[in-house]
Amino acid sequence: MLKTNLFKKTSELLKGKKTIAVVCNQWGDTGKGKFVDFFGSWADIIARGTGGANAGHTIRLKDKEYIFHLIPSGILYDSKGKINIIGSGVAFDPAVVEHEMSLLKASGCSNKNIFFSKDAHLVLPQHLLLDRVKESKAGLNKIGTTGRGIGPVYEDHYARIGLTVNDLLNPKIFKEKLIRNLREKIVLLNQYDKKVIKQILQHEHLGCGRFYDNKNIFNIDAIVKEYTRYGKIFKNNITDTDTYLRKNLGKKKILLEGAQGNLLSIDHGTYPFVTASDCTIAGLAKGVGLHENDVDMTFGIIKAPYMTRVGEGAFPTEMGGLKSAKWCGTSGITKKMEKDKFGDLLLDQTDEFKLGVAVRMAGYEYGATTGRPRRTGWLDLPFLRYSVQFSGPDVIFTKIDVMDLCKEIKICVAYEYTGPKYHVGELILNKGTKINIAIPDKEVLKYCRPIYKTFSGWQTTIRKLRNVNELPQQLKKIISFIEKEAGVKTRIISVGPDRDETIIVLK
Ligand code: IMP
Prior knowledge:
Layout: H1 4-13, E1 19-24, H2 32-40, E2 45-48, E3 57-61, E4 64-68, E5 83-86, E6 91-92, H3 94-106, E7 114-117, E8 121-122, H4 125-135, H5 150-158, H6 171-189, H7 194-200, E9 212-213, E10 217-218, H8 220-234, E11 238-239, H9 241-248, E12 254-257, H10 281-286, E13 297-303, E14 306-309, H11 321-329, H12 335-342, H13 352-362, E15 375-380, H14 381-391, E16 394-398, E17 408-417, E18 422-424, E19 427-429, E20 434-435, H15 442-445, E21 448-456, H16 473-486, E22 489-494, E23 502-504
Parallel strand pairs: 1-12, 1-13, 2-5, 2-12, 5-7, 6-8, 7-11, 13-16, 15-17, 16-22
Antiparallel strand pairs: 3-4, 9-10, 14-15, 17-20, 17-21, 18-19, 22-23
Helix pairs in contact: 4-5, 6-8
This protein binds inosinic acid.
Residues 27-29, 54-55, 143-146, 148, 150-151, 260, 264, 273, 275-276, 310-311 line the site of inosinic acid.
């Protein structure tokens, strides 16, 4: 539970609010997990509405850390009887949920307060396989996905051949739908090297080869058997969560947990290097059966004054530019390898690539789902101005403490376009055009040269501070600059990973 003083301030911040949401203004990995857990003490119901097991949040249970991908972070409050929901917009992977529920059970949580939308679409072996084949050497147009089958699940949803959680309860219908779903996929997969397919299907996420059939690629009976088993395990957790939430709107306190970030949204992000769901507040609300206007307050997280990105795609302010993108994109790089190669790097590096590595080490910026090193860069205001159009002005700053000892802080205030003449609707970009609000078009972003404003760092540790007035003058100046430039209001400043390392700003 929150300490009394923090609890009081949180209650004041949320006074009169019934439904709130936490989303991310960047490319994810900004600390949503901490704030879902933080607001979990306030909420009666905690619900996820987007993404799937591509998201990852670290949960501490009885002094042990677990990385959870699907069960909402509010599960920590299980003993308080709070309801946790995986909504209809989530790509639901039963194998991951079964694993997470077994961890919870082993830690004494009841599993009674978790509900799964009957309408959520299922992740099936063919989705995991297709995601991985497309990302393998044999595939074209690599996105750098997490390999959790997310894209193919949403593709099937829109192609109207998806299977839902409710189908787990009806094995006969499940089998019929599965056969229909696989028809075109088998034709497509037959064009790939059989050896690659066989090898991918041996992966532990894909039943260690149980679902493979030498002749037809998929062993349909084995899949039906496994998913029928899930139906039996989950039968008491599957329900109409959309209706449940609508019924409780305005009555119970509801917390919506976003996944990924606005810049990864399929509709508004840096397409095509995005995930497959709409990670904005509109997508999140829709993914639990609500409307964004039902949400009384949306908190958009900003990691600052550095930010990160995982996978492919433009990142104009990346420290070390292409060298960093290439290094982080090289398969197999781990935290340990970086440590062995670079040693313990401090934040006083003059070389930007090395500074990027130092920031990654200081902020533990390695993927919770994939372990990949996250690309690091300076805070980008053109992207922030773009992103807050979706989340609104209320923001939470996270991970500021990571940069405590950095001598110089750079903030990108605008871009200079350096490419050939290019039409964006009625706007014509020419060499030298200044861009204040990012245009999430890959043909534009690859030619955006950041224009920076440099601040001296605050160079003192802030983790113990609990009041906004105590923050170092230089940090206050940087925060006010960001607020003014991006038109945002600071509601919370996180000064460390723990619940209590949090400053509520009441203005
Ligand atoms: P997918 O969601 O696995 O299809 O991956 C598509 C893109 O979104 C890739 O660049 C991933 O690295 C990125 N992505 C997906 N989930 C997350 C996340 O939770 N944090 C950061 N990036 C993510």
